[in-house]
Design a protein that fits this description.
It is a single chain. The model is unreliable at about 1-20, about 130-140, about 210-215, about 250-265 and about 385-395 (pLDDT under 50). It is built from eight helices and 56 strands. Strands 2, 4, 5, 7, 8 and 10 form a six-stranded mixed β-sheet that branches. It is mainly β and about 750 residues long.
């Protein structure tokens, strides 16, 4: 690696412009006085700002507090690993700003002290304290939290207390009517207890029932209207103190339907209650055009409920979803003597919040309705919405359903003349589904349309003329299945089933846990003629930290940086770690640093040059590295080189099945330092974020060879397309990624991520 890009602004979602002036360094325990004034740098939106730097380590818990009597304080913070956070008010109605953070990786972070409104000026103080200690000045903890955010906090003496003696931090959460969220409070220092208050909500939780005896707390609820609620992070026992982590995520069921729009009717309903509502303009809509109103029902495992939706102005349709992926629906009340009203009788599988969706059978229908929830008599059977059942041609399905249908004259037709029945189901990102259309009367053909993106087709599955689609759903939302025929005009009966899919045999054999055996080498400090490189040693350290954080890195793995990275130590480490990696494991050799070329008379070197990795005391050649890879007997071996001329290693090492190579540049071109990301190289940065989960395109907690390749290529296309490179004799071009999968298949698993 020889070249360096200009230092760019670390935007990372906060749109902070680059600042030319020297920046002050903050450390925990420091309090600094500052002044926002007309001569300061400005945000793009016009606010004056002062920028500070802070060096932190992975896992550090810090509190940053900005106080002022002259301006409405606003704090922003960004840094390595894509970290970003911001805060307006330390407490609701307060003009001071406060950030409670847990640093995700080691490195340099930037703290921006600014104002809420453009042009504000005046004096302020900024302080940083170790988050393991009490908040600054004993101020109560808390702040504002958003869905998708995780914050760190501390219960401590000086916090607000409940009447029963427990300390608490209050966090404000804003939401819109119908938003379903999951709130988790975890701590290893005390027994967490969660409360939510506001907008008519009053719910508490002691222990998350899914954690089998664990003490962490979890609440799931639906916003009954637009506005904000207060989350109280507290303890089970009075006087308990310590650090905690609070996170808010959108519930799967809430994410799988469209965001409600103003005017959409939502709320809570209980057994024994009846509500009146109206579907129409202003309500949320399914992608297929039906208006929807949603209601939350609190249920208990084993409880039987009867839900009825009636209207004389439209054809009602009921859907019910809940914990553990539970989902069922009903079109017409089976006892309604041909009427259009909808009735569901079902047994709830688990404790928790269930979502009732009141909608219509056809798009755009509107009108008044009545929704009721009651207890059915013991003699009434559950509504048969799952399993083998007769159904009209087209409608809604749930995963797990099998229905009978018929293609017939009068059905919708494709432009090419085939009859078609359409069905919809709600899917979640990462779900595996298998869709089968079976018929003895015609040649079935399946089409699947996701909420966005390209349609998927299948003619013949594994059983002759029957059609089958197996997919991992790549997004939340409503999917449409079309059952049709291979040839125009074919008619007849068919069976359609939508079931949970399975991983392929090759994927099922990949085990979770500490199965990554890695040798990670980074050299920044070079003696002799080589110039030093920024961040390349940190590339190796950060990769180790990320793999360890995920719980996949085997303790036998070795990191070597700078003076540790000698020819002898790298060779010895490779042999030692490779010898322990078995047929169920992934072996990684990673290098970030200088790469060089030298003349060679080897006929295999088509350009007359061989490539070498520059270590602290000498070079390691492509032939020597190839000989080391011959000793690897792992499930899969991954070679990653972020260095000049690295592409030349491919032809020497990717020579047998089971080895995949990723190289930062072509064989005859240099690679650049990624100052923008505070990384020694672009490949190092994107490899780390990809293995962290960004490369898991379909959300199934597997990073495959195809997904990693696609992710890296896309990131290079966006970030590196205009980065200049040159050959050893001065010819100029651009840096291009090289990936050689050899015999590694597209769906071979690089890494199994830890799921929730």
């Amino acid at each position: 690696m020889k070249t360096s890009t200009l230092l760019a602004a670390l935007a990372l979602g906060l749109s902070i412009p680059a600042v030319a002036d020297a920046q002050q360094v903050l450390r925990p325990g420091m309090t600094i006085s500052g002044q926002l004034s007309p001569g300061d740098a400005r945000l793009n939106s016009g606010e004056f700002m002062d920028v500070y730097e802070l060096d932190g380590r992975s896992g550090d818990r810090l509190t940053v507090l900005m106080t002022s009597g002259a301006v409405d304080s606003y704090l922003m913070m960004d840094g390595p690993g894509g970290f970003s956070d911001e805060n307006d008010d330390a407490e609701s109605g307060d003009l001071d700003a406060r950030l409670d953070v847990r640093l995700p990786v080691s490195g340099r972070y930037r703290i921006v002290a600014t104002s809420f409104a453009p042009g504000e000026t005046g004096a302020y103080q900024i302080a940083v304290v170790d988050g393991a200690r009490s908040p600054v000045g004993g101020a109560p903890g808390g702040g504002v939290i958003e869905p998708g955010q995780t914050v760190s906090g501390t219960l401590a003496s000086g916090d607000e207390r409940l009447d029963s003696g427990e300390y608490r931090d209050s966090w404000t959460l804003r939401g819109r009517r119908g938003d379903r969220v999951v709130v988790r409070l975890s701590s290893s220092d005390f027994d967490p207890y969660l409360m939510v208050r506001g907008l008519g909500l009053s719910e508490d939780n002691d222990d998350d029932p899914s954690q089998r005896g664990g003490l962490n707390s979890r609440l799931e609820f639906t916003f009954p209207e637009n506005g904000e609620v207060v989350l109280s992070a507290t303890s089970f026992e009075a006087g308990e103190t310590g650090r905690y982590s609070l996170s808010v995520t959108r519930a799967d069921a809430g994410a799988s339907r469209p965001d409600p729009t103003p005017g959409a009717a939502t709320g809570a309903i209980a057994v024994g209650e009846q509500v009146r509502g109206r579907l129409g303009e202003g309500d949320a809509q399914l992608r297929s055009g039906e208006y929807v109103n949603t209601f939350t029902l609190r249920g208990r495992a084993g409880e039987r409920v009867e839900i009825a939706l009636t209207s004389d102005q439209f054809d009602p349709f009921l859907m019910l979803s809940g914990p553990g992926g539970f989902s069922t629906f009903n079109d017409d009340d089976p006892t309604g003597n041909g009427g259009l009203n909808s009735r569901l009788i079902t047994t709830l599988p688990a404790d928790g919040a269930y979502e009732i969706t009141a909608t219509s059978y056809a798009p755009g229908e509107s009108g008044d309705y009545r929704l009721s929830v009651s207890r059915p008599g013991a003699e009434v059977a559950d509504t048969p919405t799952r399993g083998e059942q007769a159904a009209p041609s087209g409608g809604r399905l749930s995963i797990g359903d099998t229905i009978s249908g018929s293609l017939a004259a009068g059905d919708a037709q494709l432009n090419s003349g085939e009859y078609s029945d359409s069905y919809t189901f709600i899917g979640r990102r990462g779900q595996r589904v298998a869709i089968d259309a079976v018929s003895d009367e015609f040649d079935t053909y399946l089409m699947l349309s996701p909420p966005t993106g390209d349609q998927l087709d299948n003619d013949d599955g594994p059983d002759g003329t029957n059609a089958r689609l197996t997919e991992v759903l790549a997004e939340d939302g409503e999917y449409t299945i079309q059952v049709t025929s291979f040839a125009p005009g074919e008619t007849g009966r068919y069976t359609l089933s939508v079931t949970q899919g399975q991983e392929s045999e090759r994927q099922r054999t990949v085990q979770a846990g500490q199965r990554v055996f890695a040798v990670m080498v980074g050299v920044s400090d070079y003696p002799g003629d080589h110039n030093d490189l920024p961040f390349t040693d940190e590339d190796a350290i950060k990769l180790e930290e990320e793999l360890a954080r995920q719980g996949v890195l085997n303790p036998a793995s070795i990191v070597l940086t700078n003076a540790q990275a000698t020819r002898a130590s790298v060779t010895a480490a490779f042999r030692e770690v490779a010898a322990q990696a078995g047929p169920d494991d992934l072996f990684i050799f990673f290098f970030s640093g200088h790469g060089v070329q030298e003349d060679s008379d080897d006929p295999a070197e088509l350009d007359g040059r061989r490539e070498l990795l520059s270590l602290h005391d000498g070079d390691l050649s492509d032939d020597e590295l190839a000989a080391l890879f011959e000793t690897v007997d792992a499930r899969l071996a991954l070679l990653v080189i972020d260095a000049c001329y690295s592409g030349g290693f491919a032809r020497d090492i990717i020579t047998r099945p089971g080895i995949m190579g990723v190289f930062s540049s072509e064989e005859d071109l240099t690679s650049a330092v990624a100052d923008k990301f505070q990384a020694g190289g672009y490949l190092s940065h994107f490899l780390r974020t990809g293995l962290e989960g960004a490369a898991d395109e379909n959300g199934d907690n597997l990073v495959t060879a195809g997904e990693l390749s696609t992710y890296l290529r896309r990131q290079f296309q966006v970030e590196v397309a205009d980065v200049q490179a040159e050959t050893a004799d001065g010819q100029r071009n651009y840096q291009n990624l090289v990936i050689d999968r050899g015999g590694v298949q597209v769906d071979d698993v690089i890494l199994r991520l830890a799921g929730e």
